[in-house]
Design a protein that fits this description.
By secondary structure, the chain is mainly beta. The protein contains 1 helix and 7 strands; from the N terminus they run βββββαββ. A 4-stranded antiparallel sheet has the order 2-5-7-6, with no helix packed on it. A 3-stranded antiparallel sheet has the order 1-4-3, with no helix packed on it. The longest helix is centred in the middle third of the chain and has 5 residues.
Length: 120
């Protein structure tokens, strides 16, 4: 699984990506996030294979910036890719992964999320 960006991203931006089983209030899928050599593709390798025919949700922090400090333009591109804004009530209690400035978008959301269902 991966997320693709049209500009090289800062190295530490991988910490503002999370995969959930189910929706945003579902458990985090544990694994390793790594950038491609050009920092435009963020790859995720889960510790265990994803389940077949199960919904997953990719959550990207609203404060993601490229290598020049420019914010990802979720307003223009996020919706085109099927994204939706994430608000605090969607994530359930105790979601530690959303702590820190990289998760907050200037509109007050916690970034965007993108849902998908695995094949069978």
């Amino acid at each position: 699984m991966f997320a693709h960006f049209d500009h090289p991203m800062r190295e530490e931006m991988h910490t503002f990506a999370c995969l959930h089983e189910g929706d945003l209030d579902g458990p985090e899928v544990h694994g390793v996030w790594e950038w491609s050599h050009e920092h435009r593709r963020l790859n995720f390798a889960p510790h265990e294979p994803l389940h077949e025919q199960v919904r997953y949700t990719l959550h990207l922090g609203g404060g993601l910036v490229d290598q020049h400090g420019h914010h990802v333009d979720f307003e223009q591109y996020g919706f085109q890719m099927g994204g939706q804004w994430a608000n605090g009530g969607m994530m359930g209690r105790g979601r530690r992964h959303t702590e820190g400035a990289g998760w907050r978008h200037q509109n007050g959301s916690y970034g965007m999320f993108f849902g998908f269902t695995t094949g069978g």
